Amino acid sequence: MQQTLSLTLEPEIALDDAVLRQHIQKTYLKTIDEDFSIRKMRQSIDARKGQVKINLEVEVYSGEIPPPAMEFRKEYADVANKPQAIIVGAGPAGMFAALRLIELGIKPILLERGKDVRARRRDLAAINKDHVVNPESNYCFGEGGAGTYSDGKLYTRSKKRGDVRRILEILVAHGSTSEILFDAHPHIGTNKLPSVVADLRESILKAGGEVHFDTKVVDFVLVNGEMKGVITADGTEITGLGVILATGHSARDIFELLYQKDILIEAKPYAMGVRIEHQQSLIDTHQYHRQERGLLPAASYSLVAQTYYKNIQRGVFSFCMCPGGFIVPAATAEGELVVNGMSPSRRDSKYANSGVVVAINEIDWQKYKHLGPLAGLQLQKDVEQKAWKLAASSKKLSDSQFAPAQRLNDFLSGKISRELLPTSYQPGLVSMDMAEVLPDIIARPLQEGVREFGKKMKGYVTNEAQLIGIESRTSSPVRIPRVKESLEHLQIKRLFPCGEGAGFAGGIVSAAMDGERCAEQLVRIYG
Ligand SMILES: Cc1cc2nc3c(=O)[nH]c(=O)nc-3n(C[C@H](O)[C@H](O)[C@H](O)COP(=O)(O)OP(=O)(O)OC[C@H]3O[C@@H](n4cnc5c(N)ncnc54)[C@H](O)[C@@H]3O)c2cc1C
């Protein structure tokens, strides 16, 4: 017999499998024997009221074997001798495009400028400990893309439930915990992501696809308005049925190459600001209305404010919150400062950090409008480079990844912090006036926005929190436009702009979904 139960329970019952089992048996299955199994279908936390509750939907099976939890089967046919298509970039978009091509009978040739997920670790250690940025292997570049050494949050605003479920099932089939299938806010964690990424690569290789690391695409093979292939840094020309360009939001050289080649690209709005770091216990206490969080996961927040600066409305919002996480140096070149956040699967660091960013629009990059579609990108570069320069020179260093920082109340009152707080940001901080580091179009709305956040969340505005800059790679500053149905570039045949760098995804799951869609369209048209 199978029955579905919708339950609202205390965390101590819902989040402990043994206790939940006892509870269900006692309350709902009095007449049934011991031999039953429970499958969680959906789990979410309701912390809106005084007492935190867990909403659960479970399926209970007694006297029968539960059906398989997933539709997806990890079975890929051999495509070694099939026609090939090229994918540039092994982020979530590129890797999922490769797997989908295999399912559709095409051999993927996946080209990645960075290193495999294991070798990449050494470069991350170098930027954290020695302040050395490898422009080909860093938090944004390398196998698994920007999503590998991240929080691994898997929620997306996409309403395509079936497609989202499919991506989650593929991740589970490649080693991710099955909790992501029922958790309303699933995440994997930076300690678990690398093995999932390596397993995705194994599936591609086993099926006869190719994956090439340290292989940077530097030019395109364009013939009569068709993208026939690409040229890599060592001069190799690789051709195929089409090219899925999934190079992410930080591949500035690719945007420049497209522009030089007269391939249509557009400047696109994005957001910039800082990360704000609090003690996780402060966020837990506010969100859960109690001192100890017990079995509950590290709490997160999502805040938005509308502000006005020079009569222009500007949204300020929290972005990519990492509860129980770390702030990391995410620059992709020397001479720039970029921070981002990641967290382990247990989210058990004592810090909570979140991007707090201001919407950036066309009006802000007028100064660079002679650069056409690269104007917004230039503004982003300038902000990152100025922050780097100020921080390095204040440390009297010619190069460093020290990040400018300021305690929150000091930022609001325009005072340089005499002493900064301990931080999760490993390279170290420099006390600076962030209103000097950031342009006014960001600093002023940020001040107003943070004050508004403080009204919504008691304790948020405190000198026990600090701003750390610069959070600038929120989304791509450039869009590579494509035809809505075919997903092919507006002008260039056989070119499929894909994922976050093309402006069609924001996050791991949406990038993976876009990768699958681009593969499907490439095969439909040219396969
Ligand atoms: C530290 C950090 C934490 C994050 N946390 C989360 C999170 O918790 N949840 C979430 O949903 N999102 C998170 N994100 C964002 C997420 O990682 C991206 O949205 C996602 O990875 C975009 O996928 P993509 O495949 O489109 O591009 P990317 O992941 O950026 O991948 C692009 C790939 O292309 C390669 N490439 C670039 N140029 C070339 C070239 N010329 N030749 C060959 N290869 C090239 C790059 O090396 C890179 O590997 C985080 C990002 C960072 C940096």
Structure description:
The chain has 527 residues and is an alpha+beta fold. The chain has 3 domains: 61 residues, Dodecin subunit-like; 233 residues, FAD/NAD(P)-binding domain, CATH 3.50.50.60; 202 residues, no CATH class. Helices cover 28% and strands 24% of the residues. The strands form 6 sheets. It has a 7-stranded mixed sheet. A 5-stranded parallel sheet has the order 6-5-4-10-22. A hairpin with a 4-residue loop joins β8 and β9. α3 runs parallel beside α6 and α3 runs parallel beside α13. It is globular and about 75 Å long. The two termini are 46 Å apart. It binds flavin-adenine dinucleotide (FAD).
Q: What compounds are bound to the protein? A: flavin-adenine dinucleotide
Corresponding CATH superfamily of the largest domain: FAD/NAD(P)-binding domain
| Percent in strands | 15-25%
- What is the domain tally? 3
Contiguous uncertain segments of 5+ residues: none
Strand order of the largest sheet: 13-14-17-12-20-18-19
What is the overall number of helices?
Answer: 13
* End-to-end CA span: 46 Å
| Beta strand count | 22
CATH fold name of the largest domain, please?
A: FAD/NAD(P)-binding domain
Structural class comes to alpha+beta
Helix content: 25-40%
Quaternary organisation of the protein chains: single chain
The CATH class of the largest domain is identified as Alpha Beta
Taking all Cα atoms into account, the compactness measure Rg is: 24 Å
Characterize the main sheet: 7 strands, mixed
Q: Globular, elongated, flat, extended or rod-shaped: what is the shape?
A: globular
In CATH, the architecture of the largest domain is 3-Layer(bba) Sandwich
Overall average pLDDT: 95
